[in-house]
Amino acid sequence: MLSEQSAVTVRATLPAVGASLGEITERFYAGMFAARPELLRDLFNRGNQAAGTQRQALAGSVAAFATHLLDHPDERPDAMLSRIAHKHASLGVTPDQYAIVHEHLFAAIAEVLGDAVTPEVAAAWDEVYWLMANALIAVEKRLYEESGGAVWRPWEVVERVTETADVVTFRLRPADGGPERGFRPGQYVSVRVPLADGARQIRQYSLSGAPGPDLRQFSVKRVHEGGAPDGEVSSHLHAHVRVGDVLELSEAYGDLVLDAGDDTPLLLASAGIGVTPMVAMLGHLAGSGHRAPVTVVHGDRSPADHALRTDHEAYAAKLPDATVRFWYERDAPAGAGTGYVDLTDVPVAPGTRAYLCGPLPFMRRVRDQLIAKGVAPADVHYEVFGPDLWLAR
User: Is 26 a catalytic residue?
Assistant: First the structure.
């Protein structure tokens, strides 16, 4: 809980700090990477840094955390903290790195706000930072303990499957001969790869299924950014990784996981490569005999672009009470919708719990439609691939 004196100061300065967070985070990252270039080379996503999305996500989370402390002084925003902590744990973030961030973040704050950063203001925002940092450190410590402590482990590629022109599925087994620790449907792993310039970049990929004992499966979409450079890691995996190669994977992390009883109606909505955690969830539901209604919703550019479509349909067909609705922007077959996902005519059972994954505009639109249909906001859960910009809207 924020101290009373700091709460007064933060409330008074939040508008000015919030208005300057974009510039503050830009200068923060520039200063930190100048002093510690290895962090950009081997920890932070260089593509997100170039696009500015990581800066937006950091600014949004800091502002949201400070606002929560003021509006709900006796509560922590555990959902937000859990999402960040899972991502940090998958990257191997350590407690000492929070001190590095603190040093450069507060240098940026002083540089941008100048004389407005009095000792009282600095102390108040220092308290905000360490309340957030220490909460994350505690959650990450627990996650590391639960995962066995090791951050990286070698996995051998035993199968490579071309799903679409831009999506490849990799199936892997532990290269060290040890057992696979298992995962909860909806979770992801980090994959660390060496690139040609010597960097070791990390990306997260949802586990799209459990193809067999001691095997993991994830599916990678090759990222094309129009006029910007293509995705570094996705392009490397598509172009260079074959059966017999060894990749470094983290344990499974992520808090978008199925948490519902057999009598809970579910809605699984995805778009594009957001299908991957939904297929894992469907596979689990089909295998566990889930009997309540399950509504499966997906949108894609075309049937040819719909990765894992065969599994998507096959798992749903095994459920006793499943409704499947697909939308395609072009070449929609009979029975599918044309254009974007639209839940207007899709029945949603009372008490439905919804899981969403896909581009932010898609998830915001689906969430709004679900709430309009009576789904409780607390029952709508989502996963963002990349920096979480939901709070930066």
Answer: no
